[in-house]
Amino acid sequence: MITLDARGLSCPEPLLMATEAVRKNPGETVRITVSTQNAKENIERMAAKYGKTVDVQVVKPDYVITIK
Questions:
Q1: Which residues, other chains included, contact 11 with Cβ-Cβ below 8 Å and sequence gap of 6+?
Q2: What is the C-alpha separation between 66 and 49, in angstroms, rounded?
Q3: What is the pTM of this model?
Q4: Is residue 40 exposed (0-12), middle (13-18) or buried (19+ Cβ within 10 Å)?
């Protein structure tokens, strides 16, 4: 599993980090923690484009996104 911490970063940084991890590690689960709803939504859209499933957990005040 690839684990990324993008808390406190502004978009598009979390999106770019997640996209790079998904592209460079096909078949691998990617877990990224973000601190804004905007970053969460952007990553969810990106994962859908790649045909990935997404699980989001709210760990206040952050979001933990698992991309499979």
A1: 36, 38, 39, 42
A2: 15
A3: 0.94
A4: buried
